Amino acid sequence: MSRLLEATNLNAAYLTPEGREVKAVDDVSLYIDEGEILGCAGESGCGKSTLGNVLALTARPPLYPISGRITIDGQTISLDRENKVPRTWRGEVVSMLPQGALNSLSPTARIRNLVGDVMKAHDAKMGKDEALDRARDRMKELGLPPRALDAYPHELSGGMKQRVITVISTLLNPKLLIADEPTSALDVSSQRALVEMLREMLNQGIMKGVIFVTHDLPLLKSISDRIAVMYAGQIVEVASAETIADNARHPYSTALLNAVLAPEPDTLVKRVEGIRGAPPSLAKPPSGCRFHPRCGLVMDICSAKQPAPVGTDLEFACCHWTAQHPDQVIRVEDVLARNDEVEE
Length: 344
Ligand SMILES: Nc1ncnc2c1ncn2[C@@H]1O[C@H](COP(=O)(O)OP(=O)(O)OP(=O)(O)O)[C@@H](O)[C@H]1O
Ligand code: SF4
Ligand SMILES: [Mg+2]
What we know:
By secondary structure, this protein is an alpha/beta fold. It has 13 helices and 12 strands. The strands form 2 sheets. The chain has an 8-stranded mixed beta sheet with strand order 6-7-8-3-9-10-12-11, sandwiched between helices. A 4-stranded antiparallel beta sheet has the order 2-1-4-5. Adenosine-5'-triphosphate binds near residues 14, 24, 45, 50 and 282.
């Protein structure tokens, strides 16, 4: 299988009004093979959207890329604070379906005009009629009526707008699509249609890979080939969806995902209890392993030294305990053992 994405040592920060840098993507490396859907999970504030924007080269002030290298489908770009992006990169090489984009549609333009705008902005080779035909077909696949093309955004429901945005962000057949919470405004059947459309576009080679960010963990497991788990601006584990569900190799993944994803029914008790506390402020993250203040498996080394990834480019975990106990299962109750000490 060929490699679609090679992103190495990505760093990006928000510049605060006081002039301080808050590093929200910290030395992240990520690889995706052609045809894959990579799910991305992590509590709120862990950096999923920020990483998406860095990969899609859609970072806007106060977010600045600092360093790193991204290769998508053989084309490479190096990141720096200047943030200069070749015109053909966005939309065609990589496209971002942004989180909370429902209100980003211009209220005074019909959807067909937005389609025209995308073509103009990207200087696309496709003619406008062809683009409208493509948009109409994809809207149909997502259960939208043809009249949606002539509607103004305020005439569409939230779920319809979300589907329109999905169509617009895939219009130029990007090699890699980053879909950030694309299903949160959709009912179950619309969710299914969207996921089926993305899978179909992958199967037909129209797109070559998808990063799918969601808090809907059962959905994440069902659609992902592999899952990347983020904590405090870093990827702490990447593994197949099955491994993450049944035998995650990072205590944070275990606590975050196992209780929800493990098979019924003995998990009902675990479901009630999650990890107490919240991810740390990225302005001053904990030393060593950033999860150590909340981790029941914590050892002396954990606050002293950042754990290195153990595994391969495609499947790894960054945890001292796992490195020392490669064959032992991580028990969720052991990870949550410090819950009483952790403040909500
Ligand atoms: N404008 C900003 N200035 C400073 N820090 C910011 C700014 N925007 C976001 N951050 C920080 O960046 C971190 C990552 O935020 P991000 O939105 O990427 O998280 P997320 O994982 O996508 O969360 P969610 O699941 O809620 O969408 C957060 O800790 C947040 O505090
Ligand atoms: S065992 Fe240590 S390194 Fe592993 S997650 Fe817990 S605190 Fe981090
Ligand atoms: Mg987000």
